UniProtKB/TrEMBL annotation:
It holds the Pfam family Uma2. One of its GO terms (molecular function) is endonuclease activity. It comes from Streptomyces celluloflavus. This is Uma2 family endonuclease. InterPro entries: Nuclease_put_TT1808, Restrct_endonuc-II-like, Uma2.
Amino acid sequence: MEILEAINLVVPDGLLIPDIAVCEADAAAEAGLTLNAHDVLLVVEIASPSTRVTDKKMKPALYAAAGIAHYWRLELDPAPRLYLGRLENGAYTDRLVQAGETATIGRPFPISIDPAHLSHR
């Protein structure tokens, strides 16, 4: 697997630039500046005041329509929290993980994560 930052991602309705995209290594090697949505296992958006609405409302629908199985959204304010979205029936079902909680995840790859450790506060 490869982790790519701010890559052009082709989805059915156009082009998006996720903060982070995780894909298979072969797809990353061939990607250049653009990656196709069908090669992506996970996208992560880090919400800021200027992107919060887009990251919460618009992007999940576009990523879901593209068939991306996992969409995570990290919100840092007022405290770090991570929304772990898994695609089910055409939409993401979110699991909220608050700062101080550790989530153990098996897909798209095994990881244990506490949102409190994702901030430099």
